Hints:
With 315 residues, the chain is α/β, with parallel strands linked by helices.
Amino acid sequence: MKRVLVTGASGFVGKHLIEKLVLSPDLDIFATVYSSPESLSQFMPTDKIFSLDLTESDKVLELVQSVRPDIIYNLAALSIVQNSVENAKNVLTSNIALQYNLLESMRLHAPYCRFIAICSANEYGLVKESDLPIDELTPLMPLNPYATSKVAQDMLALQYYLAYDLDIVRLRPFNHTGSGQSIDFIIPSLAKQFVDIKAGRIAPKLLVGNLETVRDFTDVSDMVSAYSLAADKCVKGEVYNVGFGKGISVREIIALLSEIAGIEVEVVVDKARVRRSDVPTLVSDSTKFRQTTGWAPTIKLKETLSHVYNYWLTK
């Protein structure tokens, strides 16, 4: 059996990835969480869930030495873009430190492990229109501290491959969403407002930030399938974009949610929600990843939006 370590496993994507991986009888799953192990107890035994701060190097060394993983998926990061400007120092130091600690621990205690570095499409930042859709050769022009921290994580992973010949694959996922994502992110925020408006809990006014921002959304189920395929099929040392390949504006998402909810709302731009350092357009060209792995998204955005809307109906 392959021993798999998933860091940041109690987060939105981490839970979905764990839920997928535990279905395989050939994998022995271990996980790290920042909070309580009970957050994953529905999926796996708590004695394989480690609660620790990955910025503490001694604890990470001890963990990797103990688990001796064959595969590491690093999903751990401070990842809320809009908070990263006010919390820049912590975002930068934490995200860089945890990536370094994991890579250094792997070098010392699990040198034959495959490391899946989950980076971010936010690294591309201020993309020229002529560079759309974005492939892996597009220059990195980060617009916020979170994106800068992900560039650093990305380059650390590349450095450890080049310097030590470690088995590292870098993924740059574009936006993904689904059931269980917090309202710190745009689609759950909008879906919850629609649910609250329809239930009469709030006035029929939808508070939004940048209406014309364009993103490329993939359902989280398709995204974690991509992560799993990356561990099996991607080429050591390479970097891959992962995304649906179709852009949609916030305004268009609102129209789809309005159809799903069956209500009309007044759209109000809330200045507090407008990001000063927002990336205008992020649309992926994931041809390289698709050709390497055979992956293709299977869930269309309207279906994903329905899942998110129905999730908030139960809350």
